Amino acid sequence: MAEISAADVKQIVVACEAGMGSSVMVAKQLAKQLKPQGITVTHAPVNQLADTPHEIVLVHRGLSARAKQAVPESVVVIFDMFLGDLNVAKMVGTLQSGGVVTDG
């Protein structure tokens, strides 16, 4: 299980199928929430994750296997809902409080 301290997180990438739509919405929402921590949030197609700078990958469950295969050493946080997902809220809370983010 991969993990990373909040202090070491500078960039999160929201992985998606084609790089548009829902992932852009999630990335913008997270960018606003995590701006005070100095964390940048971008989005990228899952097949380009290896070429995208990040410490954490946020990905919908349907693409999680592909994301883990593309970047096996990265922390991969899986979500089910594009808005109001508990895993996303937990990750944001952990980053805001200075904790440790783990896969899941």
TrEMBL record:
GO molecular function: kinase activity; protein-N(PI)-phosphohistidine-sugar phosphotransferase activity; protein-phosphocysteine-sugar phosphotransferase activity
Keyword entries, A-Z: Kinase, Phosphoprotein, Phosphotransferase system, Sugar transport, Transferase, Transport
Domain (Phosphotransferase system EIIB component type 2/3): residue spans on this chain: 12-90
Phosphoprotein in keyword set: yes
Gene3D superfamilies: 3.40.50.2300
GO biological process: one example: phosphoenolpyruvate-dependent sugar phosphotransferase system
A Pfam family it matches: PTS_IIB
InterPro entries tied to this protein: PTS_EIIB-like_sf (IPR036095), PTS_EIIB_2/3 (IPR003501), Sugar_PTS (IPR050893)
GO CC list: plasma membrane
PANTHER family, per the entry: MANNITOL PERMEASE IIC COMPONENT, MULTIPHOSPHORYL TRANSFER PROTEIN
Function of the protein: The phosphoenolpyruvate-dependent sugar phosphotransferase system (sugar PTS), a major carbohydrate active transport system, catalyzes the phosphorylation of incoming sugar substrates concomitantly with their translocation across the cell membrane. The enzyme II CmtAB PTS system is involved in D-mannitol transport.
Designated name of the protein: Mannitol/fructose PTS system IIB
